[in-house]
Amino acid sequence: MMKRHFEFWPNRLATTLPIPETTVYDNLVVSSNRYPNKPAIIYYENEISYKQLKSEVDQLAGYLQNQLGVKKGDRVVLYMQNSPQYVIAFYAVMRADAIVVPVNPMNIKDEVAFYLNDCDAKVAITGQELMPNIEAHIGKTPLTHLIVTAYSEYVSPTVDYALPDIVSAEKQAFQADGIIEWEKALSQNEQPGKVQTVSSELCCLPYTSGTTGNPKGCKHTHETLQANIMGASVWQQITPSSVCFATLPLFHVTGLQHSMNAPIYSGATIVLLTRWDRDTASTVIERHGCTHWINIATMVVDFLANPNLANYDLSSLKSIGGGGAPLPVAIGEKLYELTGVRYAEGYGLSETISQTHSNPGDRPKLQCMGVPQFDVDSRVIDPNTGKELGPNEEGEVIVNGPQVFEGYWNRPEDTEQSFIEIDGKRFFRTGDIAYYDEEGYFFMVDRVKRMINASGFKVWPAEIESILYKHPAVEQAVVIGTPDPKRGETVKAFVILKADQKGSVKEEEIIEWSKTQMSAYKYPRIVEFVDELPMSGSGKILWRKLQEQEEQVQ
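^ that's the sequence the OP posted. Answer follows.
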């Protein structure tokens, strides 16, 4: 196990972290006992206390058990946007001894059917705006009961800024068999039976994004979740006085763990948005004194591009970070100039229920995955031979740690292929290419499958994208490979220009500038200006979708 990074470990912080032998639901119990009247959630100016949160969690758990027959180990799908109902439902499913299956609300009808069938879910909880994608599956998949809610039920009537349409929408009535209104489920005041689950048992089944075939369910226990809940809370110094700004989608493991579970474990307050809006974000950061904000690079780019940003007081922010994609250096510097906070990136996957690596808050490096987290043994190997590599040698990242999943749901062959044994330890093969420096900080190169082979040279799109962000006219960029008769593949960049640069900068100018910034085999031969880029529900740019579209055109 590498220890070179311990020299740069946060001061007064142990390098190991004992994991609680309790369930994730127990975290809510402790915080509600300690701080019953403290706001657990602030949702569009509506304050929900820890006492109210736990009460509604228990009521919903009781309804699931007593009225819908949910039993220990059953899978319950959560298919909704960020909302108090999401938080309540997540903890209620766990209190009912069942397994939470978070599903991306951007999934459409046929995709939703896949999840219901794959995990054999008989019960789902959804937002009313998503009913066209799931209602028809009752009786045609394992789904028999569907609890539906309107986000407007939890919005303060005195909110003084614009609401997203799906949040302001009035509650609709649904009369079909098997459909239960959220309010009715809670109003029964059912109470759950004695807790049967122990910390070593399954509690959550997040699915991979499906970039390499069908999505796969990742089997996580209370222990694996607790490892990263504890790790996030301690590493980021989330305390009961912290106010955590939740803008990442909660179906995604980063939002789930950092923006919901870690604050609840710590007794902190969550300021929750259903939809990202940069003006609303600035308003609530100032109004509620948000201290911690985990986000994604595209969100930061948009936040900093707000021409009204100077009108807000953002001085409460003490910790800002994220993952999913490297933050361009130029953006990180601009953020530091504005807030005085260094952006701290992290790295993790659905298979590790968020972080395995994080940057030390007082010594972060930009465009860096960070150092291995508490009790994580991370190494770099040759992906073909399995040989372990040393500093500054690029290879596949492998991880062993308390947050690593047990395997894929009903996919034993995929599970077996995803692990490798070294020194008697079972390591998960991430499929990501990276290296670590002399100080033990890891740096992403790219996905194994994303490499561009240009005239025999390896070109990693993430590196090119990072350089393009330095151009003063570039707001967002994504790089793919496109067929080339001479080079085999060549580099193409899709670019969104800053609003004040549109029409004044040409594609050829970006290409000529790129020639001065990178090696001849790396610079983009083709640049295409676009008004928007395809995004996932978690805010990642969907490079694979652009790649597939490009291949269809050729």
